[in-house]
Amino acid sequence: DYRMQQYRVFSALALSYSIRWAAIFIRDYLKRVQTAINSGDLQAAEELPELHASLSGLKAWSTIIAHGHMEDLRKACGGQGFLMSSGMPAIVLNFCDPATVEGEQVIMSLQCSRFLIKSVTQLKNKHEVKGSVKYLLDAPITTLPFNSWPNATPENLVAMFRDRARRQAMRLEERFQASQKRGLSFTDATNETAIHGYKAASCHSAYITISRNLDALNEFVKPKDTNIYNALLNLFQLTALRQIKDDLADWFECLTPHLVDSLTDGIHVLLDNIRPDAVGLVDALGFEDEQLDSTLGRYDGRVYEAIYEQAKLSPLNQSPKMVGWESISKVLDLDFIKAGVGQRACVDSKL
Hints:
The protein folds into 2 domains: 3-286, Up-down Bundle (Butyryl-CoA Dehydrogenase, subunit A, domain 3); 290-343, no CATH class.
């Protein structure tokens, strides 16, 4: 019920669902292309560049942002999050594997940026662009179709991410071409524009995640259960608004100060809406106690009892007196300490 903790925890929860929807999309996309190629459909091979770009971009973007949220959640647990018994350090450390094991993720994202450069170049040369980069055909958004958060539709939010991806891809290609016109090779031009490339790839991946999230809700959830749809729609909107809030400069061309304040108010509304469903949404992910191995994340809710039992297992707590007490007590003024304890004015912790 603490607002700042809600902001951190619910944002991570919402993002986990969004990434899961994107993972389902990319899994099905990969399976469809592989099946088509194996059956002799050579036309499906034309989708391989886009598939590779989407896989690279999503792999880099999702693991980097997810790992950041994991570490933030660990810190949100305070000192308990530092203890191995909480399970949080192990979760954060183990996720270093997907975030780094295939190589530095920022470099991996540049494979996506090369695809974006090629797609923009094809568009300028009057060639067809399709698939996830069809947004390159869109007109730029200079004025949003809503003036306050309550009037923003889910489709409006997707359109904002779509427009940002288009603008960043266009700017990347312009800078890349400018570098080559100065005589830089393809490799050197790619290196010089790597910062812009990483940004464009991240925006492209965020757009895929946001758009596929809403598509999945409308296609699979809404027709079956309105209540579940509304609960998951709150998560979708929080994911979108949190990213907009964190990257406000990306939308300075269409956001006004009033609208920024309104979108921030919308985050507060969503936190209140998510609160009644938060526990159920976490349990729905299906992680069992044995997997989490945590004193904090427990199905029975007996957190303090678990912390106490784990603390008793520490070698430092195996005797009534702390290790080394016999030596320390000889140099301490115990009467002075006892008098100070009796006079202290601070309030005891509720914990």
